[in-house]
Amino acid sequence: MSWKISPVLRIFYPVESDIYSVYKDIIGTAMKLPRVDKGYRHLKRTRHIIGVLLKYGFADLVDRLGISGRLRMGAPLRPKFSPALSAAGRLRLALEELGPTFIKVGQMLSTRSFLIPPAYVAELSKLQDDVRPVPFEDIRALIEKELDGTLEERFVGLCPTPMASASIAQVHRARLRSGEEVVLKVQRPGIARTIAIDMAILKNLAGLMERHIEESRHYEPLAIVEEMRRTLMRELSFTDEALNVDQFGRNFRDVPDVLIPKLYPEHSTDRLLVLEYIEGVKVSDIERLRAMGMDLKRVAHVGTRFILKQIFEDGLFHADPHPGNLFLTADGRIAPVDFGIVGRLDRGLLDEISDMVVAVWRQDVDLLLRVLVNLGALDIEDDSIDLGRELSDLLARYYGLPLSRLDLKTLLSEALDISSRYHLRLPSNLLLLGKTAGTYEDLGRRLDPEYNFFEQVRPYIKKLLWRRLQPERLSYDAARSLRDLYDLFKIVPRELELILRRFRRGRMAIELQHQGIGELKDEVGRSFNRLSLSVIIAALLLASSLIMTLDQGPLRVTGLIGVAVAVALGLILFIFILRSGRF
Hints:
By secondary structure, this protein is an alpha+beta fold. The chain folds into 5 domains: 9-127 and 194-221, no CATH class; 130-193 and 222-277, Phosphorylase Kinase, domain 1, CATH 3.30.200; 286-469, no CATH class; 473-511; 517-580. It has 22 helices and 10 strands. The strands form 3 sheets. Strands 1, 2, 3, 4 and 5 form a 5-stranded antiparallel sheet that branches. Strands 6-8-9 form a 3-stranded antiparallel sheet. A two-stranded antiparallel sheet has the order 7-10. A hairpin with a 5-residue loop joins strand 8 (326-328) and strand 9 (334-336). Helix 14 crosses helix 19 (453-468). The chain starts with 18 loop residues before the first helix and ends with a helix. The relative contact order is 0.06. Residues 1-37 have low confidence and may be disordered.
C-alpha cells in the first residue's frame, strides 16, 4: 500500500514511499511521539544515520535491517572512504561523523571486546571526542542560568577560549572572586536532548537487529543499548562526577605523591563543575618531562602505585584509560583529571580477580573456568572442553616466562580474543579494569624501558589473598553463612507444613513444562488428521469398487463417482505431504 507524503516529509523523501512502514520499523513504538516536531527531528536524524552508514559502505547491514527498500535516500551517495580501508576503519569514520553520542558509544564498545572482533576494538580505541567548541556566549548563558546570577558575581578573568572541548562538555579557566584558580567544566547546551534522541533511535535499530539478524540475538543488542544509555546518562550528571572527585579526594588524602583537585560544590551544579586548576604536564609528554629534569623511573613507579591502590585497596578506579587525563606537577605529584568515568570493584569481584590470578600462576584451568562461571561469563551447563584447551594453551605459552618479558596488553588481547570467540560476557567493570591496566602499563614502559608491571602488582595480589584469610574476614564470612543457614532452617519447616497440608487436602498440583511440547502436539494432530483422511480414502475406494462390481447401471455410476472422489482426496493428501517435506 502506497501512502502519500506530506509537503514537510517530502523534503526527506523526494519520491513516494511506504512511509507508514518506515515510521513503524525505524521510529518504532518505543518512541511514542507525542508531538509533530519531535517526530520530525527523530525522522530527520534517523535518515541522517542511515545515510552515513550507506556512505561508509554498510549497505549490507542496512539491507539486513529490512529498511533499505523502504527508506528512499534520493540521489546515490558517494562513498567517503578509500577502497583499501578496512570495515573497522570505516566504522570509526562513520561514528566520528555521526557525532558525540556515537563517538561515546564507539568508545564504550572498545572496552567490551566480547561484542566485537579485535580489529574493531583497536580501531574504536582511536576515537577521540575533540570537537568544535560552543560559542562563548552560549556557554556564558548556560553558566548564568545554572548559577542564577551573572558571571561577575562568582568569577573574574574567565577565559572565553576553552582549554579543551569534548563531545559532552568544554573546559574554561577562571578565577574565583576569593582568588583561587579554577577550571569550569561546562556541559554543552542541548547535548542531553541530542543524546536522548540518538539513544532512542539506536534502541529501535537494536530492535530491528534482533528481529532481522538472527546471529545478533546472542549479544542482546537491546540490553547493550540500554546499558550504554544508562552509562551516558550518568556521565551527563556532573553531580555524580562531583561525588567521584570527593571520594577520590578522601581516598588519597594521606598520599603525598598524588594530588586530587579540590571541588567547589557551592559553585557546581548538575551541568557545571568547578574544580581547582592543576598546573602540570601530561604524563604522556615524555620530552617535556625530560626537559624538566623529572626522574622518569620514579614517575612510572608512582603512577603504578596510584592505579594499584585504586584497584586493590579502594575498589574505585579512574576508568578513562587516556594518558592525557593524568598530569605531573612541578613537585613530582601525579594529578588525575576528568572523573566522569570510574570503575567500581566490590569485594566479590576482587575475590574472583585474585582467584583468576592464582589460576594463571598455577596453570589451573579448572579454577579459571570456575571463576568464569562465578562471574556469569560462562554457563555451568555449557560444554567448556574446547574453551579449556585454548585457555590451557594460552597459559602454557606464558608459563615460566620472566616477568620482565611479559606484555600485559598482548596477554589481555589474546585472552579477550578467546572471550570474543566463545561469547564470554565478562563484567563491564572487569573489562574497564583490563583496558585501564593495559594502557598504564604501556605508559609505564614508555617512561621506563625496564619497567615491570607484574613485579609491581605481585605484592598487592599477595596482600589481597592474605586478606581473605584474616581472622576478621573468616569470622565475618562464617557468621554470614550461619545467618543464611538460620534463615533457611527457619523457613523450611513452615514450607514443608504447607506442602503436607495441601497434599492431605488434595490441593497439591504438579505442573510439568516441556520445551517444544506445543510443536509436538501440533505435529501429532496433523499426523492423526492425515491418517484419518487416508482411512476415509481407503474405505471410499473399497466401497466404490464393490458397488462397481454390480451390474446395475445407476449403481455403477455411483461407484465411479466414489472412485473419482477418492482419487481427488488422495492427490490432495499427497500434495500436502510433499509441501510439508516429510514422508
